[in-house]
Amino acid sequence: MARNFRGAAVLLFCGMMSCFVGILKEPLMPRSSVLRYGWADKDWNWGSPFGTAHDEAMALRERLDTREQRASWAQRLESGEVDLEEMKLALGLRIQHAARAGMDGDGAGWTLMQDMAACKYEGSDGPKLLKEDLDQLISAISGNSKDFSSKDVMNSGALALKAMGFMEGGRIVLGATLSPVRQRTKCNVK
Q1: In terms of C-beta density within 10 A (0-12 exposed, 13-18 middle, 19 or more buried), how is residue 119 classed?
Q2: Domain of life here (predicted)?
Q3: Each residue of 71-129: pLDDT tens digit?
Q4: Tell me: the pLDDT tens digits for 148-171?
Q5: Please, are residues 62 and 145 in contact by the beta-carbon 8 Å criterion?
Q6: Are 156 and 138 in contact (CB under 8 A)?
Q7: Nearest-angstrom CA–CA distance, 171 and 186
């Protein structure tokens, strides 16, 4: 009886220690701060030089400053290792640049960015709706009249970014948008 109790105690102790080690390791793993925020956040303020969106955009621009960094990030995006909110932020930044350069599918990208600001892609249906609209954007950019469809939202995001010149880069000049998207609509996130 004592032997069975000791075995159970050792198993319990090992299980507790593995949980404890997992908790200790978690803060050491790099996580995007964009995960904590999103387009529905009250302080997001897309299109404004003040707010969480501006701060997160500055940090993302710095992390994706070189072609090599963008290539590595795009590869991680295609394999599902990039957070959806970070991808949406990158899309917003790239669309701003692409719209000024006439590379956003004759305004289709700008419309998608306005839909992001209006929180269309938040909530449980958000990723599905975003994938559909990204696939339409890719078709518009390529000039292909056939409907395009990728395997998932992350793949659609990567393809749309590349179609708008993401790999080549081009810094976004702060405050130089076509028309600021500052109107905040109340998000009805499901």
Answers
A1: buried
A2: Eukaryota
A3: 999 999 999 999 999 999 999 999 999 999 899 999 999 999 999 999 999 999 999 99
A4: 777 899 999 999 999 999 998 765
A5: no
A6: yes
A7: 30
Tell which residue, 148, 153, 110, 150, has the closest CA to residue 128: 153
Q: Are 161 and 91 in contact (CB under 8 A)?
A: yes
CB atoms within 10 A of CB 155: 18
Q: Which amino acid is residue 154, in one-letter code?
A: M
| Diameter of the chain measured on Cα atoms | 78
**Contact criterion met (CB below 8 Å) for 86 and 162:** no
| Rounded alpha-carbon distances, angstroms, from residue 162 to 94, 119, 135 | 9, 23, 13
What is the predicted pLDDT for the residue at 126?
A: 95
* Alpha-carbon distances of 56 from 28, 108, 114, 175, rounded to whole Å: 20, 24, 18, 15
DSSP letter string over 162-174?
HHTTTTT--PPPT
pTM of the model: 0.72
